[in-house]
Here is the input.
Amino acid sequence: MSSRGTPVMVVIPARFGSSRFPGKPLAMLMGKPLIQHVYERAQASPMISQVLVATDDARIRDAVDGFGGTVVMTTEPFRTGTDRVAAVARQLPAQVFVNLQGDEIILHPELLTDLVMPFLASGAGMGTLKRRLTSMAEARNPGVVKVVTDQQGEALYFSRAPIPHVRDGAQESVAWLHYVHLGIYIYTRETLLRLAEMPTSPLEDSEKLEQLRALDHGIRIRVWETTHPSLRIDAPEDLKEAELVLQRPVPC
Here is the structure.
C-alpha cells in the first residue's frame, strides 16, 4: 500500500523474444535472472503495494515462480509493453498501474517514490520520469530516449534524436539541456485502458516509442525529474558493467 493509501501495482512486461538480446529476462546476473533483479528492486519501494510479471513465455513464468514472484500469462501478440500491462489491468481491480520495463533495474528505492508520490497528488492520467543527461555521447545515442517538457512538466515530445537541437554553438556546452526518459510509466486504470484501445500512431511507428501514441491522440503525459540512478540492460555486453554497478553500495 502506498503511503497515501492508494494501492499501486507494478506490472513488469517480459518477453523472451528480442531482436538484440533473445532471452534477456533470463540472462544471469550475479547468480540471478535479470527479471528477478528488476522484480526485487521494485518490491523494495515503499510506494508499491504489489509487483507482478506479465509474460507470454513459460520459461519466464517458471523462473518467476522459482524465486517466489507473482506472474500472469498474457499470450496474445501485444504491440507494446503498455498493451500487455493493459491486458493485466482488465483482469485486476487496481486503479493505479506502473509499467516497469523488464530490463530496467532500479538502483535506489526512492526512484519509484519520485514517480508515484507526485502522480497521486497531481490528478494526471499518465506520468513518467526523466533524469538529466551529463554527456553529449548519450544525447546522440539513439538507444537513449530523450524527452522535452514544457515549464509545467508536460511532455512536448520524446525522441531517439538529440532533442532539443541547438542551432548555434557547440553542443558540448549545453549538455544540461538534455534529459533521458526512463522507461517507467504510471497510469490511472481509465487512461491505461483507453490508451490500449487507440490505434498505433504514425509518430509511434516512426520512432518505435509507445508513449508517442498517447501524445499523438491527445493524452497528456506529466514528467517528473529524478536524480536517483537506474540501470538499463540493452545488449549482452551490458551485463558485465551491470555486475560492477550492482556490487557498489546503494547510494543514500
